[in-house]
Fold this protein.
Amino acid sequence: MSGGPADSSKEWHVPNGDAKRDAILSAAMEVFASYGLKKTTVGDIIRAAGVSRATVYKHFADKGEIFDAVVEREIREMLAADRRAVSDETSTEGRLRAAVATHAELIRKKINLLRVTKERFGEIVPHTKARTQKMRAEATELFADIIRQGVEEGDIVVDDVEQAAVTMLYAVQGIFMGAVMDVWDADRDELIDRMVELLMNGLRPREERYS
């Protein structure tokens, strides 16, 4: 292939092993965003990263493994941002809103960055299933932490913390699918507020739900 990121003058080449791996992933993300998973070749990534073929294969077995690593890095960055947003809040409702809003907004940005479309979504899912399952477990733990803290503070009552956390994560994933299916609109803040309100009403002590 020619053009696009493969011919970019941007320098991703750096001397150290871990930094070099990260530079390869940064270059690879641009290439995947331009060409999609199927059309991208390892050669495209090598040219964009400005490294040798041996260097790429020292870190990654094939194109699929590079793509998995790109997705994992992006998800880890999202989870780190989620936790930073949550740490700034002082109430259960505030922490929940911060987690949902930050996660949803970052999903939107990542989808745009990778230029994920309905057509590309189908080719991406099989390659990232195992990796995203691991990341989903970490995201579930984030919501579980919020719930546990809320229970400790007396804001909410939850019999099964893990199940409640999974339910919350599925709600956020609904926003993810909306973004993929091009129904993410200007009312997303209102949608998030309604989601948080519904979740909180389901978690508050019974006597507070109807007061």
